[in-house]
Amino acid sequence: MNLQMRDGLPYVTVTLLYGGQQLDLANVLLDTGSAGTLFAADQVLTVGLQYDADDPVQRIRGIGGAEFDFVKRIGRLSVGELQVSDFAIEVGAMDYGFAIDGIIGTDFLLQVGAVIDLSRLEIRRASP
Amino acid sequence: MSQPSHKVQKKQTYGYRFNRLSENLRLGKVSGSEVLESRVLSRSPSMQWQDIRQHYPHQWLLVEAITAHSAAGKRVLEHLAVIDTFPDSVTAMQRYTQLHHDAPEREIYVFHTSRETLDIVERQWLGIRGVR
Questions:
Q1: Which of A31, A53, A93 has its CB closest to that of B97?
Q2: I need a surface site. Which of A58, B41, B102, B103 has the fewest CB within 10 A?
């Protein structure tokens, strides 16, 4: 899958599967500086993914302050040919002042063994 | 019909100013940031989670940490103030987003009071630095 560069940052399109429904999100940042994978609450709400009373919660603390999010298991997360089934995502407000639907973090990239090729601006599986 | 129990009476007294604020919020008389401001000015009581669970059973809450600390990868909330109550998590999260935007320095959470303990994992993140 090709990387789309915007404001000097690499974005990909991802597909989430939750409760039998599929959601494509085009503004997802590829971020090896984030341990976890995060999506915007208003986006995932469109496939019925919402905060349940007993969902695990987290506090993400960083330079820009701190924010609260909850953790949810989804059926599948795909970035092109790279995919993980039964994957835990974080869901939060993601109010960063610009258009962003989510962040693919190092947890997903490690599990799929992603190769991020910045000379070709693409993300793919490692060659066998 | 039975008279209001002592427990109900206590809850009404305790939650009065919050209820009035949330009513004004629903009516559009005040904005979210004004609610936060009012809450501070009125010196609302801070409570521990178990007290809050008793006062606001079976509800979604927007709460603010008044005193909290970090230890062993967890965020420990010692005293909380209830900002508002909600019938569902979707509207609670929408209000969270609005208040977090208006007052990012405040430590705000959304919890349902069926949650027995607040087990909050804390994680570091440098954040996004784009070229604007």
A1: A93
A2: B41
pLDDT digits (tens, 9 = 90+) for B22-31: 555 555 555 5
SS3 of A127, please? coil
Q: Could you report the per-residue pLDDT of A63-96, keeping only the tens digit for each?
A: 778 999 999 999 999 999 999 999 999 999 998 8
Q: Is A4 on the interface with B (CB under 8 A)?
A: no
For residue range B29-58, list pLDDT tens digits in order. 555 444 454 444 344 578 999 999 999 999
Domain span at residue B1 reads: 1-43
Does the ipTM surpass 0.85?
A: yes
Give the A window 9-68 contacts with B, CB below 8 Å: 9, 29, 31, 33-36, 41-42, 45, 50-54, 56-68
**3-state class of A112 per DSSP?**
helix
Parallel, antiparallel, or unpaired for β A102-104 and A21-30? Answer: parallel
Q: Is residue B21 part of a domain?
A: yes
Give yes or no for a contact between A41 and A92, defined as CB atoms under 8 angstroms apart.
yes
- Does residue B115 share a domain with residue B104? yes
Task: Please give the interface size between A and B, counted as residue pairs whose CB atoms are below 8 Å apart.
Answer: 94
* Whole-number pLDDT of residue B128: 81
Residues of B in contact with A36 (CB under 8 A): 123
In a domain, B128, yes or no: no
Strand partners, A71: A90
Do B79 and B65 share a structural domain? yes
Residues B66 and B95 placed together within one structural domain of the fold: yes
Taking the CA atoms of residue B5, residue B7, residue B11 and residue B12 in that order, the dihedral angle to the nearest 10 degrees is 20
The pLDDT, as a whole number, for residue B37 is: 46
Amino acid B100 reads H
How does pLDDT run across B57-68, given as a tens digit for each residue? 999 999 999 999
B67 in the same domain as B21? no
| B94, B100, B126 ranked by CB distance to A33: nearest | B126
Whether B38 and B50 map to the same domain: the answer is no
Are residues B56 and B36 part of one domain? Answer: no
Residues B78 and B28 in one domain: no
